[in-house]
Amino acid sequence: MVYLTSDEYLDRFGDVETIRLTDTDKTGTVDTAKVDTAIEDAGQFADSYLAARYTLPIDGDTPEILKGIIAALARERLHKNRAPDAVTAEADRARSQLKDLAAGRATLMLGGSTDATPEEIATGEAVASGDGLPRVFTPERMADYTSLAGYPYWRNGPLG
Asked: E strands of the chain, at which residues?
């Protein structure tokens, strides 16, 4: 699945850098085939993480956060072994985001929302991907917890 086009990549990082990274023939133009290959490689890498929680290919518009992840990974691939520290750090953040998505610590908002009802969202029964962990602090579990003059108390006395 292509999550990012070469034009979107160029909008993010500009022609000057991209020409410097891809123009091995010194024509003064962007080698879009190299950009597309880097984007495709980054997309396959992302899919290896996303497959843990999402049905692939992802339908509809690609979420902007995923486009940013793919762009950062593709940019690092185009730099090959000469990536500046800032480019490597950005790609490391992108890999970390993919790990969070795979582990359920983050969720892609596909289509802009979930299919959950407001009641499911309020009670914690809904998870955007459909298979996350249940909510820990529910109203039922917190029923014995109150606040008295700003100090937390359990039913049997003060905490601590």
From this structure: 146-148, 151-154, 157-158
